[in-house]
Every structure is written in C-alpha cells, then in structure tokens.
Amino acid sequence: MKKIKAFIAGVGKEAKRIKWPTKKEMVKYTGATLALVILFAGLFSLLDILFYFLGII
After folding, report:
1. Which whole-number Å values give the CA distances from 13 to 3, 18, 19, in the listed order?
2. Could you count the other beta carbons within 10 Å of the beta carbon of residue 4?
3. Given this model, what pLDDT does residue 2 score?
4. pLDDT tens, position by position, for the chain (57 residues)?
5. 51 near 57, Cβ under 8 Å?
6. What is the pTM of this model?
7. Is-contact 57 48, C-beta < 8 A?
8. What are the residue ranges of helices labelled H in 1-57?
9. Most exposed residue of 17, 31, 38, 39, measured as fewest CB within 10 angstroms of its CB?
10. What per-residue confidence (pLDDT) applies to 41?
11. Which residues of 12-42 are buried (b: 16+ CB within 10 A; e: fewer)?
C-alpha cells in the first residue's frame, strides 16, 4: 500500500510540472489538426474516385 501511495504522490508532483499550452497555442494546434484532417480526407476521396473510374476497385 505504501508503494501505491508513493506512486500517486509522484504522479501528482509530475502533473504540477507539466507546462500546459496557452489558449492561443491550443487554437493554433487545433486549426492545424483540422486542416490536416480535411486535407487527407480530400486526398483519399480523390484517390477513391480516381481508382473507381480506372476500375481498380
């Protein structure tokens, strides 16, 4: 039981040391993620259409 309490205390100490991103950084990271998701969705859609018309699929 002592090991578990020590582990939980260590996790708490490490969590306090985390540098959380600011709101501005989160907006930037979210925008980049959404842009990449949309880009890859479009790319795979175009490839799917191309393969369909070529008769590969």
Report:
1. 15, 9, 13
2. 8
3. 87
4. 889 999 999 999 999 999 999 999 999 999 999 999 999 999 999 999 999 999 876
5. yes
6. 0.64
7. yes
8. 2-17, 23-54
9. 17
10. 98
11. eeeeeeeeeeeeeeeeeeeeeeeeeeeeeee
Amino acid found at 20: W
Between the CA of residue 31 and those of 19, 25, 38, what are the distances in Å? 20, 10, 11
Specify the amino acid at residue 22.
T
CA 44 to CA 13: how far, in whole Å? 44
d(CA 34, CA 4): 39
Q: Alpha-carbon distance 56 to 48, whole Å?
A: 10
Determine the residue type at 6.
A
Q: Which residue has the tokens 């540098």?
A: 19
